[in-house]
Design goal:
Elements: H1 8-19, H2 28-34, H3 48-67
């Protein structure tokens, strides 16, 4: 976990992502779980499956972006 925030901090993180054209993935339950993880700490094993889903989505987004070039 390298960035975390709620409220205004979360809005600024989302705004920065949009500025740099970074795709956004929404999973409120996963967010709630990840907010409990300290910065610079490993993701708990019980969240691995959910995080894998994020990586699969990201891979799909990257593949679609490359195909549109």
């Amino acid at each position: 976990v390298i960035a975390s925030g709620v409220g205004e901090v979360a809005k600024r993180i989302i705004q920065k992502a949009k500025e740099y054209d970074i795709a956004l993935f929404s999973n409120p339950m996963l967010v709630d779980s990840l907010l409990k993880v300290e910065l610079d700490c490993a993701i708990p094993e019980e969240l691995y499956e959910s995080v894998v889903q994020v990586f699969l989505w990201l891979n799909s987004v990257e593949n679609n972006a490359q195909m549109s070039k």
